[in-house]
Protein backbone atom coordinates (compact mmCIF):
# COMPACT_ATOMS: atom_id res chain seq x y z
CA UNK A 1 0.00 0.00 0.00
CA UNK A 2 1.53 3.29 -1.10
CA UNK A 3 1.96 5.93 1.53
CA UNK A 4 -0.46 8.88 1.47
CA UNK A 5 1.08 12.29 0.89
CA UNK A 6 -0.03 14.98 3.29
CA UNK A 7 -0.02 18.59 2.12
CA UNK A 8 2.82 20.58 3.35
CA UNK A 9 2.50 23.85 5.18
CA UNK A 10 3.44 25.82 1.99
CA UNK A 11 0.68 24.16 -0.12
CA UNK A 12 -2.17 24.83 2.32
CA UNK A 13 -2.68 28.53 1.34
CA UNK A 14 -2.89 27.55 -2.35
CA UNK A 15 -5.61 25.01 -1.62
CA UNK A 16 -7.61 27.57 0.37
CA UNK A 17 -7.38 30.07 -2.50
CA UNK A 18 -8.57 27.46 -5.00
CA UNK A 19 -11.58 26.61 -2.83
CA UNK A 20 -12.49 30.31 -2.60
CA UNK A 21 -12.28 30.73 -6.39
CA UNK A 22 -14.51 27.71 -6.97
CA UNK A 23 -17.14 29.04 -4.54
CA UNK A 24 -17.04 32.52 -6.21
CA UNK A 25 -17.50 30.95 -9.66
CA UNK A 26 -20.48 28.95 -8.47
CA UNK A 27 -22.06 32.08 -6.96
CA UNK A 28 -21.54 34.02 -10.22
CA UNK A 29 -23.16 31.27 -12.27
CA UNK A 30 -26.16 31.17 -9.96
CA UNK A 31 -26.55 34.97 -10.21
CA UNK A 32 -26.41 34.80 -14.02
CA UNK A 33 -29.07 32.10 -14.09
CA UNK A 34 -31.32 34.13 -11.78
CA UNK A 35 -30.89 37.27 -13.94
CA UNK A 36 -31.73 35.30 -17.09
CA UNK A 37 -34.87 33.90 -15.50
CA UNK A 38 -35.90 37.38 -14.31
CA UNK A 39 -35.41 38.91 -17.79
CA UNK A 40 -37.37 36.04 -19.32
CA UNK A 41 -40.22 36.63 -16.88
CA UNK A 42 -40.25 40.40 -17.56
CA UNK A 43 -40.21 39.77 -21.32
CA UNK A 44 -43.12 37.38 -21.05
CA UNK A 45 -45.02 39.83 -18.84
CA UNK A 46 -44.41 42.71 -21.28
CA UNK A 47 -45.51 40.47 -24.13
CA UNK A 48 -48.73 39.70 -22.34
CA UNK A 49 -49.32 43.43 -21.67
CA UNK A 50 -49.09 44.27 -25.39
CA UNK A 51 -52.10 42.01 -26.07
CA UNK A 52 -54.38 43.92 -23.72
CA UNK A 53 -58.14 43.82 -24.38
CA UNK A 54 -58.80 47.34 -23.08
CA UNK A 55 -61.37 49.04 -25.32
CA UNK A 56 -59.98 52.14 -27.11
CA UNK A 57 -61.56 55.58 -26.84
CA UNK A 58 -64.49 55.95 -29.23
CA UNK A 59 -64.33 59.75 -29.36
CA UNK A 60 -62.03 62.11 -31.20
CA UNK A 61 -60.46 65.27 -29.85
CA UNK A 62 -60.92 68.03 -32.42
CA UNK A 63 -59.82 71.66 -32.52
CA UNK A 64 -62.43 73.99 -34.04
CA UNK A 65 -60.01 76.08 -36.12
CA UNK A 66 -58.96 72.93 -38.03
CA UNK A 67 -62.43 72.25 -39.42
CA UNK A 68 -62.69 72.58 -43.24
CA UNK A 69 -63.37 76.21 -44.08
CA UNK A 70 -64.49 75.46 -47.65
CA UNK A 71 -67.34 73.32 -46.32
CA UNK A 72 -68.61 75.73 -43.65
CA UNK A 73 -70.41 78.98 -44.58
CA UNK A 74 -68.34 82.14 -43.95
CA UNK A 75 -68.64 83.88 -40.61
CA UNK A 76 -71.13 86.76 -41.09
CA UNK A 77 -69.03 89.26 -39.10
CA UNK A 78 -65.73 88.40 -40.78
CA UNK A 79 -62.34 87.59 -39.31
CA UNK A 80 -61.18 89.56 -36.29
CA UNK A 81 -58.36 91.85 -37.29
CA UNK A 82 -57.49 92.87 -33.72
CA UNK A 83 -56.03 90.15 -31.49
CA UNK A 84 -56.15 87.47 -34.20
CA UNK A 85 -55.60 84.67 -31.70
CA UNK A 86 -59.29 84.96 -30.83
CA UNK A 87 -60.23 83.59 -34.27
CA UNK A 88 -59.08 80.12 -33.21
CA UNK A 89 -60.95 79.89 -29.89
CA UNK A 90 -63.83 81.05 -27.72
CA UNK A 91 -62.55 84.40 -26.49
CA UNK A 92 -65.87 86.25 -26.42
CA UNK A 93 -65.31 90.01 -26.53
CA UNK A 94 -61.96 89.82 -24.69
CA UNK A 95 -59.04 91.55 -26.39
CA UNK A 96 -55.52 92.49 -25.44
CA UNK A 97 -55.36 95.90 -23.73
CA UNK A 98 -52.52 98.40 -23.54
CA UNK A 99 -51.92 101.03 -20.89
CA UNK A 100 -49.53 102.50 -18.34
CA UNK A 101 -48.70 101.89 -14.73
CA UNK A 102 -48.08 105.11 -12.78
CA UNK A 103 -45.87 105.17 -9.70
CA UNK A 104 -47.76 106.79 -6.78
CA UNK A 105 -44.77 108.76 -5.47
CA UNK A 106 -42.98 110.16 -8.54
CA UNK A 107 -45.72 109.63 -11.17
CA UNK A 108 -43.39 107.67 -13.43
CA UNK A 109 -45.20 105.91 -16.28
CA UNK A 110 -44.30 102.42 -17.45
CA UNK A 111 -45.87 100.95 -20.56
CA UNK A 112 -47.54 97.57 -20.07
CA UNK A 113 -50.28 95.33 -21.49
CA UNK A 114 -53.04 93.11 -20.14
CA UNK A 115 -53.77 89.81 -21.87
CA UNK A 116 -57.09 87.95 -21.50
CA UNK A 117 -57.34 85.19 -18.93
CA UNK A 118 -57.14 82.31 -21.43
CA UNK A 119 -57.34 78.61 -20.54
CA UNK A 120 -57.48 75.34 -22.49
CA UNK A 121 -60.55 73.15 -21.97
CA UNK A 122 -61.87 69.94 -23.54
CA UNK A 123 -65.64 69.52 -23.88
CA UNK A 124 -67.56 66.37 -24.77
CA UNK A 125 -70.34 67.03 -27.30
CA UNK A 126 -72.74 64.05 -27.29
CA UNK A 127 -74.54 65.16 -30.47
CA UNK A 128 -71.29 64.86 -32.44
CA UNK A 129 -69.76 62.00 -30.50
CA UNK A 130 -66.46 63.89 -30.23
CA UNK A 131 -64.40 65.95 -27.84
CA UNK A 132 -63.70 69.58 -28.67
CA UNK A 133 -60.43 71.02 -27.34
CA UNK A 134 -60.30 74.80 -27.53
CA UNK A 135 -58.89 77.90 -25.90
CA UNK A 136 -61.40 80.03 -24.04
CA UNK A 137 -61.49 82.81 -21.51
CA UNK A 138 -62.69 82.37 -17.96
CA UNK A 139 -65.70 84.60 -18.63
CA UNK A 140 -66.80 82.40 -21.55
CA UNK A 141 -66.36 79.29 -19.40
CA UNK A 142 -68.59 80.86 -16.77
CA UNK A 143 -71.21 81.61 -19.46
CA UNK A 144 -71.06 77.99 -20.66
CA UNK A 145 -71.70 76.74 -17.13
CA UNK A 146 -74.61 79.17 -16.77
CA UNK A 147 -76.16 78.10 -20.10
CA UNK A 148 -76.03 74.43 -19.11
CA UNK A 149 -73.35 73.18 -21.48
CA UNK A 150 -71.40 74.09 -24.57
CA UNK A 151 -74.22 72.97 -26.90
CA UNK A 152 -76.64 75.50 -25.43
CA UNK A 153 -73.92 78.15 -25.58
CA UNK A 154 -73.25 77.52 -29.28
CA UNK A 155 -76.88 77.19 -30.40
CA UNK A 156 -78.15 80.45 -28.95
CA UNK A 157 -79.26 82.59 -31.89
CA UNK A 158 -79.09 86.14 -30.53
CA UNK A 159 -76.88 88.58 -32.49
CA UNK A 160 -74.78 89.33 -29.42
CA UNK A 161 -74.00 85.62 -29.00
CA UNK A 162 -73.09 85.24 -32.68
CA UNK A 163 -70.66 88.15 -32.37
CA UNK A 164 -69.24 86.58 -29.23
CA UNK A 165 -68.66 83.18 -30.87
CA UNK A 166 -66.13 84.37 -33.42
CA UNK A 167 -65.02 82.27 -36.41
CA UNK A 168 -64.03 79.27 -34.27
CA UNK A 169 -67.34 79.14 -32.43
CA UNK A 170 -69.20 79.68 -35.72
CA UNK A 171 -67.55 76.56 -37.17
CA UNK A 172 -68.59 74.51 -34.15
CA UNK A 173 -72.12 75.89 -34.31
CA UNK A 174 -72.55 74.92 -37.97
CA UNK A 175 -71.15 71.44 -37.41
CA UNK A 176 -73.41 70.94 -34.41
CA UNK A 177 -76.47 72.00 -36.41
CA UNK A 178 -75.86 69.18 -38.91
CA UNK A 179 -76.52 66.45 -36.32
CA UNK A 180 -79.90 64.74 -36.13
CA UNK A 181 -80.25 65.50 -32.42
CA UNK A 182 -80.03 69.25 -33.00
CA UNK A 183 -82.37 69.04 -36.00
CA UNK A 184 -84.92 67.30 -33.80
CA UNK A 185 -84.41 69.98 -31.15
CA UNK A 186 -85.17 72.72 -33.68
CA UNK A 187 -88.26 70.82 -34.84
CA UNK A 188 -89.53 70.69 -31.26
CA UNK A 189 -89.08 74.46 -31.03
CA UNK A 190 -90.97 74.92 -34.31
CA UNK A 191 -93.85 72.79 -33.06
CA UNK A 192 -93.95 74.84 -29.85
CA UNK A 193 -94.24 78.02 -31.94
CA UNK A 194 -97.03 76.52 -34.04
CA UNK A 195 -94.94 75.88 -37.16
CA UNK A 196 -94.63 72.72 -39.19
CA UNK A 197 -91.55 70.60 -38.47
CA UNK A 198 -88.96 70.05 -41.17
CA UNK A 199 -87.79 66.71 -42.46
CA UNK A 200 -84.67 65.38 -40.74
CA UNK A 201 -81.66 65.05 -43.02
CA UNK A 202 -78.97 62.42 -42.63
CA UNK A 203 -75.68 64.34 -42.61
CA UNK A 204 -73.55 61.91 -40.64
CA UNK A 205 -71.13 61.53 -43.56
CA UNK A 206 -70.47 65.28 -43.62
CA UNK A 207 -69.98 65.35 -39.85
CA UNK A 208 -67.54 62.45 -39.94
CA UNK A 209 -65.64 64.04 -42.83
CA UNK A 210 -65.32 67.34 -40.95
CA UNK A 211 -64.15 65.60 -37.77
CA UNK A 212 -61.73 63.43 -39.73
CA UNK A 213 -60.39 66.49 -41.57
CA UNK A 214 -59.72 68.27 -38.27
CA UNK A 215 -57.91 65.22 -36.84
CA UNK A 216 -54.18 64.84 -37.62
CA UNK A 217 -53.38 62.11 -40.11
CA UNK A 218 -54.79 60.91 -43.45
CA UNK A 219 -58.50 60.73 -44.20
CA UNK A 220 -60.39 57.49 -43.69
CA UNK A 221 -62.01 55.59 -46.56
CA UNK A 222 -65.45 56.87 -45.58
CA UNK A 223 -64.24 60.48 -45.55
CA UNK A 224 -62.52 60.05 -48.92
CA UNK A 225 -65.76 58.70 -50.42
CA UNK A 226 -67.71 61.64 -48.97
CA UNK A 227 -65.18 64.10 -50.39
CA UNK A 228 -65.42 62.48 -53.83
CA UNK A 229 -69.23 62.74 -53.76
CA UNK A 230 -69.11 66.43 -52.83
CA UNK A 231 -66.61 67.18 -55.59
CA UNK A 232 -68.75 65.31 -58.12
CA UNK A 233 -71.79 67.33 -57.05
CA UNK A 234 -69.85 70.58 -57.55
CA UNK A 235 -68.62 69.50 -60.98
CA UNK A 236 -72.14 69.04 -62.28
CA UNK A 237 -73.18 72.00 -64.44
CA UNK A 238 -76.57 73.67 -64.36
CA UNK A 239 -78.12 74.15 -67.81
CA UNK A 240 -80.62 76.94 -68.43
CA UNK A 241 -83.26 76.59 -71.14
CA UNK A 242 -84.49 73.53 -72.99
CA UNK A 243 -83.95 70.19 -71.29
CA UNK A 244 -82.97 68.66 -74.66
CA UNK A 245 -79.81 70.77 -74.56
CA UNK A 246 -78.70 69.28 -71.27
CA UNK A 247 -76.21 67.06 -73.09
CA UNK A 248 -73.66 69.59 -74.35
CA UNK A 249 -71.25 67.12 -75.90
CA UNK A 250 -72.59 67.43 -79.46
CA UNK A 251 -73.02 71.22 -79.42
CA UNK A 252 -70.22 73.47 -80.59
CA UNK A 253 -69.15 76.16 -78.18
CA UNK A 254 -69.75 79.78 -79.18
CA UNK A 255 -66.50 81.48 -80.24
CA UNK A 256 -65.53 85.08 -79.51
CA UNK A 257 -65.91 86.15 -83.18
CA UNK A 258 -69.38 84.66 -83.44
CA UNK A 259 -70.34 86.30 -80.18
CA UNK A 260 -69.18 89.70 -81.49
CA UNK A 261 -71.23 89.27 -84.70
CA UNK A 262 -74.32 88.33 -82.73
CA UNK A 263 -73.90 91.35 -80.50
CA UNK A 264 -73.62 93.63 -83.57
CA UNK A 265 -76.81 92.16 -84.98
CA UNK A 266 -78.61 92.78 -81.71
CA UNK A 267 -77.36 96.38 -81.63
CA UNK A 268 -78.56 96.97 -85.21
CA UNK A 269 -81.96 95.54 -84.39
CA UNK A 270 -82.23 97.81 -81.36
CA UNK A 271 -81.28 100.88 -83.42
CA UNK A 272 -83.83 100.02 -86.08
CA UNK A 273 -86.53 99.65 -83.44
CA UNK A 274 -85.62 103.04 -81.96
CA UNK A 275 -85.67 104.83 -85.31
CA UNK A 276 -89.01 103.32 -86.21
CA UNK A 277 -90.44 104.40 -82.85
CA UNK A 278 -89.13 107.94 -83.38
CA UNK A 279 -90.75 108.09 -86.83
CA UNK A 280 -94.09 106.95 -85.41
CA UNK A 281 -93.96 109.62 -82.70
CA UNK A 282 -93.14 112.36 -85.28
CA UNK A 283 -96.04 111.28 -87.48
CA UNK A 284 -98.40 111.46 -84.50
CA UNK A 285 -97.17 114.97 -83.71
CA UNK A 286 -97.69 116.09 -87.32
CA UNK A 287 -101.23 114.73 -87.34
CA UNK A 288 -102.06 116.56 -84.12
CA UNK A 289 -100.78 119.84 -85.56
Automatic annotation (TrEMBL):
Pfam (any one): Ribosomal_L28
Compositionally biased residues, Low complexity: 30-55
One cellular-component annotation, GO: mitochondrial large ribosomal subunit
Gene3D superfamilies membership: Ribosomal protein L28/L24
Residues covered by region (Disordered): 30-66
Entry-linked InterPro entries: Ribosomal_bL28, Ribosomal_bL28/bL31-like_sf, Ribosomal_bL28_sf
Entry's Gene Ontology molecular function annotations: structural constituent of ribosome
Keyword Methyltransferase: no
Keywords on record: Ribonucleoprotein, Ribosomal protein
Record bears the keyword Ribonucleoprotein: yes
PANTHER family (alphabetical): 39S RIBOSOMAL PROTEIN L28, MITOCHONDRIAL (PTHR13528), LARGE RIBOSOMAL SUBUNIT PROTEIN BL28M (PTHR13528:SF2)
Family designation: Belongs to the bacterial ribosomal protein bL28 family.
Name the UniProt record assigns to this protein: Ribosomal protein L28
Organism: Hypocrea atroviridis (strain ATCC 20476 / IMI 206040) (Trichoderma atroviride)
Amino acid sequence: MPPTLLPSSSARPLMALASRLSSTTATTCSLRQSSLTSTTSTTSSSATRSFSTTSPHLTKTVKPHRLPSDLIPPYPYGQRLVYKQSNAGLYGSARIRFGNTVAPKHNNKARRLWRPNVHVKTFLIPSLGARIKTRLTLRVLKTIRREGGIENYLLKSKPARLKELGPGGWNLRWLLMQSRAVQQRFNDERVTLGLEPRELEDRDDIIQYALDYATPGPLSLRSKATLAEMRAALDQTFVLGDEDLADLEGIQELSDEEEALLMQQIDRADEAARTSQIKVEKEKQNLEV
